[in-house]
Fold these 4 entries.
Entry 1:
Amino acid sequence: MLKEKRQSVRARILVKAYPQPSQTYDETVCVAAVSEDGREMLRLYPIRFRHLPPDRRFGRFDLIQMEVERPKGDTRPESRHVIEDSIRILEKGSQLPANQRIALWRNHVAPSLTELVAEQKINQRSFGIVRPDPGSVRFFAQPIDNDEPEQRDLVKQLFQQQSLLEDPLKPLQKPTYNFGYRFKSDGHDHRCTLLDWEVQAAWFNYQRQYGSNALDMMKKEYGENIPMQNLHFIFGNQHKRPWQFIVIGLLRSTLDPDEVGKQNDLFRVSN
């Protein structure tokens, strides 16, 4: 694919994946977003989120404007290379009503995870949203094995790398658990680890707040409360393994997206 010219786009943020060490960019975050008109899901990277000044550190459903390019060597239709200095927050997500948040992403819901994978083979689709079968969701927490010396030392070195022209980052707290869900989608069993920054941030906060009861609180929130809030998974694939989809974030709401869709349809008909 030929590299296209730089474009200015406006998008709403859906989720930030957990920061990953990078030999080129120090530390980067992959971001899932939806174009302002709701027509396209966008993969925004590489974003050195913790290097951004406070007035550019966007949150969920914030409306941002930025300049992007089609990344060289990445043929996934949703991928955009972001020019960090161009990022501007236009509106905070807290100002967007729940029904309008849902309206942004509900058209990107795939019938099932199996069909999302099948569609990837046809048109290279690399992002999608899946609603698990009712009553099938089971949360799990698995301790991370940090006993491999070579991998541990490499990660440590990468996280300690700093730009000579920028203030050093505070060392990123390393995850101690893999959190995820077992669930059914169209009757098929799946097990997926969550790579959502929000999930790990919740775990660190619970550790500070609840101490030895932190894991019980995680299980209550993510295993009991969130599955009751019309839970949907945001899936994205890997560049080198396009057939492998992983959960990069969670969507939930007290409103049922199907009911919101029916109301929107009725509104369009009446007009």
Note: Helices lie at 98-105, 113-123, 149-160, 197-210, 214-225, 257-270.
Entry 2:
Amino acid sequence: MRVLIIKMSSMGDIIHTLPALTDATKAVSNIQFDWVVEEGFTEIPKWHKQVQKIIPIALRRWRKNICRGIQNGEIKQFYTQLRAQEYDFVLDAQGSIKSAITTRLSRGCRLGMDKSSVRESLAYLAYQRRFSVPWQQHAIKRIRQLFAEALKYPLPETLPDYGINIRNVSQAKIELPKDYLIFIPNTSCSVKLWPNHSWSLLIEEITRQGVDVFIPWGNENERKNANQLTSKNSLAHVLPYLSLNEMAAVLANAKAVVAVDTGLSHLSAALGIPTIVLYGPTDPLLIGTIGSSQLHIKMAENGNSIQDSDTTVLKKIIDNLQHFLTL
């Protein structure tokens, strides 16, 4: 059986889909997957051994200049790749208008969520078979349920298995100490941010104990912010720009991670790394990280960012980090 998965973005949503592939692989003999995914996230599906072919889509970039995408042939090339194979099933695991259109353009029996379950209501019209997947459950469980119903096997009661083959992850060409922590203060959604003052206090306290801290970044503003947080501390470092493969390798060898709610926090959890995640407007019961040694701290909001932490929260983070460092 060959199945095309339509799950284009975002990073966290793509990672949430991996356990469903593991379920299906165990339940359905000889199943293979291809995957349509945004060009910036093509590395993620490759980590799962059951994914055979990646079909990149550059929708985010094409939206900025659709004429260029047509003129340079990129859109035609994507359409050709999408139509090259006739699949047993095409499964839209995103439920948005853009994913539904992509599903409709593909070749194969089209599966997706019903009208009350999709993210954008009109998306259900693209599917030939539709399934009810209740909203009030974790995103990973929703996708596992969708796959189980669509591909006709019992929904497993086991903990999610992301199926990431660490051998498929490229090692970053940087030298790192034996024991280190990763702090992730940056995210594209401003209301999820934790004030720099709080990060500075945390960095100061942890590095005082002789532990190295590394901060990743994804754009120039994030790099500047990381430099600001590390500039006066010899044990706090800004990582060079890394691909997702390289970032996964750095996370996989960290003792622990502290992060706001962002894609890299889900990647850390998927790799089995102890992770402390600070949540503001998002609900960890619905989209929180799932993995071994995960701590979710629900913070109050002030409208623009997560409110500054009190000493109790800071102490909780530090105490847990000290525990993770001994593992």
Note: The chain has a mean pLDDT of 94.
Entry 3:
Amino acid sequence: MSNSPVKIVYCTPALYMAGGVERVLTLKANYMADVLGYDITIILTEGKDKPLFYPLSDKIKVINLDVDFEVLWTCSFVKKIFVYLQKQRIFKKRLTEELIRLKPDITVSLLRREINFINDIQDGSRKIGELHVNRANYRNFEAGDTNIVKRLFAKYWMHNLVSHLKRLDRFVVLTEEDKSSWTELSNVEVIPDPLAFDIDQVSPLTNKRVIAVGRYVYQKGFDLLLHAWKLIEQQHPDWELAIYGMGERMPYEQLIDKLKIDRNRCHLNGSTPDIKAEYLNSSLFVFSSRFEGFGMVLIEAMACGLPVVSFDCPCGPKDIVRHKEDGLLVPSGRPDLLAEALHQVMGNDSIRQKMATEAINNAKRFQLDGIAMRWKQLFEDVLS
């Protein structure tokens, strides 16, 4: 390797949204540019004139190819096929031109549309793929996708994806649990996402509030959480439940009315720019997801000194939470068991205090400097 800084290009659709992938990429890229001294470029396809949601280091270059795949959201099924193929040709041409011009040492794909052709681009770079969801749910984000045509397409799509992943220099997943599902591959590495903030303040655990964080979508299981809350709310009249996240809240508001949940102690909030403050203002974190890629909010809550009650869903919780030490893991999709676990922790101050101490120590595994060093080692390995 020469003395010039390692040149890394990240390929991802957009950075204008307040999503987990966007936040993690920004966090890592800033550290690599500012601390490790890497030459970082991020190539986008969407949001040409939209401001970046998370602040990027001035040292990082951003190139927007302005492909606008998002127009597909408004197309009919038949039109979508033709528009997609056209957009994909444009994307391949523009990305190829940029990579050949930039000549990076390493190109990191966040495994969106470029995975179909990135191995064939002759720019001289090592190719790394980085996946932020688990294998089982890579192409299944909502309920009801049981159409036989969709299932057949998903099977073909996965076979095609695996053939591309095999050709990568490295394929990075977030959990050991997910790594074990990619049995066809021998190039898989596990590097979890980093914690988004320093462990410098912890909750005093004095406010009797249970907090949940995530988008208002099927995946996050807030319907299951509300069913669980209904089972225990009357046993704990001095506790409240607060949910924070983006998305359409109306179905959950209607479920609260249907279940006759006390609205004075159950609050559906929008997203907040300071979620850390909300963790610090709570005494217990609940995680009700049906599936995950990782579960970053678990680590955030634990870093703030919150014990955790979580579904043991695929993938993430069992890699993060140590059952009966810093939290409780319960079988996925069982509101009755989630309620039992919540009741157990809400009703016992000493359990909460003990788990909180363990949670803070556990969360240190995910601090940014340690995770960044694992990426640095991986980059050095593929370039050696």
Note: The chain has a mean pLDDT of 94.
Entry 4:
Amino acid sequence: MPKVANRNKALLRTDAGVKIYAPTAKTGKGSYYRVVYALNGAQRERSATTLDKAKQRAVLASKEIMRGGDRRAELSISEFLDAYLDPEKRERVGRRWGKKHARSQRNLLNLYLRTPFGATKCSDIDNDFLRAIIKQAKTESIGQHLSNSLRGMATWGIQEGWILNSRDTLLAGLSNEVRKLAGIKTAIESGENGLFINEDEIPTHGDVAAVAATAAVVSGMWWHELMFNLAAYSGMRLGEIIDLDVTSIDTLKKTIRITQQCLEDGGKKERTLPKFGKQRTTTFPRVTPSGYQLLKELERRITEVMAIEKPVLLQDGTNRRLLFTNSKGTWISQGSFAKHIRRPAQEIIGWSKKADGNFCWTFHSLRHVFCTYYLSELKQSPSDVAIAAGHTDAYTTLSMYVGASREAIAKLSAAS
């Protein structure tokens, strides 16, 4: 009969007094490694199937001891999510969420985390655990949203003591799991970070002109061509352009003041601050690179709107003259716009699609056109473009649209 380990002799011991005991049997309860330690005057014990996992649990237990015995890591994932999804608790160290974003996070985390793993202890949240969750996503797009949610959740959880792993260790390789969902291997540009946007992710000037003109044909409204071109060459987000009224536009200076946006959550529309709470002023060219008379057509639309005898009462109780409206003269529905105008126009002109059948470009991709146009073609400074686009800082703009690889190769080429 094979020898078994001595139950009373520790295999390993950490500086914090955490002991690891080897299995005492081949099968059954005694076949696990035991991680034993004292916390708040009580004896605690965790089990592991391998020595490596036992060492990981010993490290976590040591951190818990050194942190003074914070027991949140021993609570359930369901209790953790209750705290994380509570605005009052989350916003102490995190950013305020809009209603639409809050609903999206709640739905994702409840579906992929709370329902299957709600009873699991937070101390079991490690890199393998998060990777396994992402693998359950049905598409690459869902996987990306889920990965972003898990990153935000993990960062907050570490700060608040629910998760004891380091952030770098916990989140390593999650992007790789997302790429695997596409069914094909996606290359990463050497020298760039996760924000970098490749040229093939940005519509060309010709692509913009084609989809804009086709949108007007699909809808029967000439000004939808203006809407697409204005978005592409002013950098406005869809929610911002939906809420755009004539008082925000200065045609002499060619500027637009953005102080609010219209967001839609579960079919209900409301007026909120722009993304990140950043109000800003942006600009637009007199004529687009494809020859569209942007200023002239914008003045034409303003004249039409001003000719309306009385502005329509909007859902938020205000009377404003919106530039782009639905058939009732009020805010456009983002879902209806995508379904009946944007996607049909994209289909007609043959915009490329991803492996999951979704278009590679969306309305938001028009913001990339604005940024690259002013940075690469008009040679404007990243800090100026960041202000007009509403980015967090110039570093974000540089990371997304300029990157490091081109400059690096240009220097190497010049040196030889």
Note: The chain has three domains: 12-69, 74-180, 205-368.
